[in-house]
Amino acid sequence: MTLFKSLVGATALAATLIAASASAEGYPERNITMVVPFAAGGPTDTVARLVAESMSKDLGQQVLVENVGGAGGTLGAGRVASSEPDGYTILLHHIGMATSATLYRKLAYDTLNAFDYVGLVTEVPMTIVARKDFEPTDLKGMVEYVKANKDKVTVANAGIGAASHLCGMLFMSQIETPLVTVPYKGTGPAMTDLLGGQVDIMCDQTTNTTKQIQGGTIKAYAVTSPARLDVLPDVPTATEGGLADFQVGIWHGVYTPKGTPADAIAKLNASLKKALKDENVVARFAELGTTPSADADVTPEALKAKLESEIGRWKPVIEAAGQYAD
Ligand code: MLT
Asked: Where does the signal sequence lie (predicted)?
């Protein structure tokens, strides 16, 4: 009986492995879910939908964005980490993958061992913005005002581990003033409250703030890029505004669950590369203050190296701030 059971077990395992490799050969044969670990309407969602739309055309299957917000992006990342490694669930995430590895000491997944890598996507500058009737007229005055009203001023972010949280943390440490933070499931919903005046300031990516700044519906104090942006020529850099060394770029990458068939990853990588050369994607990125990653960086190796180096870079910064999620 034991021999029979082990033969049945081996046959079942072989069938599963054949099925998995077979699906990779014909991959993709059905829709692909691209998990965005933040609410719809925010910067990560904006980048993802542009890339997903282009990849859908290329792959001949729908790449459908699913927003899984919460806990600074870690709920969405965890969802993908525990998904079938068959190439039909992928993750588009950003620097939060690296910061959360230190900020969350009880993560549901092992950041460096739960994912395979497809490639980098883009690195987006940030902007320090406020509700449009916020009194200060420049960054220097804003810092003075915030310091003098530290118990009153509210800072929106997308939860501990989000890019908006990281930028806000750097801002508060630079001005040596802790502020009241208001977490959201993404800076899409946070922007709604900023526009409505329910929250005072935010540090968010240009992919979410450029149109609002250009339209005058929010106030911009600085960009966190080394130089001013073509799309926001009147917004000084943080360095110009007196915050030296305040440069933050939010890199984004595409991941799959660990164990995804290599030829599925190769097809995803080829499609991602094409999407980042798609003239509509390039044009929309440019309108929103960013550019696609260089071809040499849209590789699994480049994303893996970026994640590893960024975990190492932010670990001491976060430990020095002593701010953890749990
Ligand atoms: C963040 O990290 O702040 C996210 O980019 C917010 C978002 O994409 O909604």
From this structure: 1-24
Give 90-140 pLDDT, tens digit per residue.
999 999 999 999 999 999 999 999 999 999 999 999 999 999 999 999 999
**Superfamily holding 30-124+250-321:** Bordetella uptake gene, domain 1 (3.40.190.150)
Rg (CA), the chain: 21
Nearest to 23, CA basis, from 74, 80, 89: 89
Q: Which residue pairs, CB below 8 angstroms and at least 24 apart, start in 111-114? A: 111/307, 111/311, 112/307, 112/308, 112/311, 113/258, 114/81, 114/257, 114/258
The answer to whether residue 13 scores a pLDDT higher than 70 is: no
| Same fold flag, 30-124+250-321 and 125-223 | yes
Whole-Å CA distances, 186 to 99, 164, 193, 249: 16, 9, 12, 18
Domain 125-223: homologous superfamily in CATH: Periplasmic binding protein-like II (3.40.190.10)
CA distances from 40 to 66, 69, 132 (A): 9, 9, 23
- Atom from ligand 1 closest to the CA of residue 72: 2
Domain ranges, ordered by start, for the chain: 30-124+250-321, 125-223
Ligand 1 contacts CB of residue 162 (under 6 A): yes
Query: How much distance in Å is there from the Cα of 120 to the middle of ligand 1?
Result: 17
Pocket lining: 71 vs ligand 1, CB cutoff 6 Å: no
Q: Which atom of ligand 1 is nearest to the CA of 164?
A: 3
Return the amino acid letter for 208: N
Query: According to the model, what pLDDT value does residue 132 have?
Result: 97
Query: Where residue 322 falls among pLDDT bands split at 50, 70, 90?
Result: confident
What confidence score (pLDDT) does residue 25 get? 75
Evaluate if residue 68 carries a pLDDT over 90.
yes
First to last CA, the chain: 50
